[in-house]
Here is the input.
Amino acid sequence: MIRAQLTGNYASRIIAAASNRIGEPLGEKFQISNWDDAADQILEAAESALANKRERLAGENGQIARDIESLMPREINETTKLQLLLSLSQGARTGFDQKTHRQVKQVFSRFNYVFLIAQLLEGQEADQITDDVLNHLEEAEEALRAAWGQREFNRLSANAQKLADFGVAAKNAFGEERLNEAVSTLPESDREALIESIGRYVLNEVHRQLLLGATTELWVDYLTRIEALRVSIGLEAFAQRDPLVQYKSRASEMFAQLVEDIRGLVISRVFAYQPRPVEITPVESSDAPVALQSANVDANRKKKRRRH
Here is the structure.
């Protein structure tokens, strides 16, 4: 009786997980007597659900067949191929917003390429996969750095009068001695250097957001577990020879695990992270401190004259 109940519970969880992964219901009528029967029924239902989904999406009258002509790019290259694949994996439908009582366009995911990726990665060495992922990340960051730098340069150029209006990025690119130069007189080489510096600054802030968000999320849980460890060590101190050594040992292991968790969370989010807008604030040029210093000197001179 207990074995049959446990088998039914595990089978229900596997059915729910498979249905969630496939994106299609597997059905509700499963006559499960033992684990072998459950495995056979689940596999058969999964294959049937995949076949139905394939026909609904890629069949003669499927959704992809209807959308592929309108989504087909004029020029075929590696970038447009990826854009087409991403566009085909998403669909749009008309929904009803209960708050505004209006029809809205809802974007949903039709399928993902996890099985295709698994087939492409089959037989490859782990080092080669790691190198490919890192190369892709570096190229993506380079493209983002150029795009963000150009975007922020265009936005700030509308009201910028001098290099100081471009904030720390201009200071890093040209130093403090050139912050008072007019933006309109910049040569093309300096303009490109400024765009590169702005992009590097924005990308660094995005890295900071990503790392700070992951650290903050896991740090609270870490402090809670450290406090629980301190209480448990205090309760066990009566039976231990040296509770402080035990506390340091466990706390060190927990901190090492925290670092690993932060690294894993950052890696899992780095390719799908949606950064918040980064604002660049102008920096003060060297004229302001000089003027303030001269004003203080004049005030001191006047005070000295009054004393005489």
The chain has two domains: 2-88, 126-269. The mean pLDDT is 80. The first strand starts at residue 90 and ends at 97. Residues 2-88 form one domain.
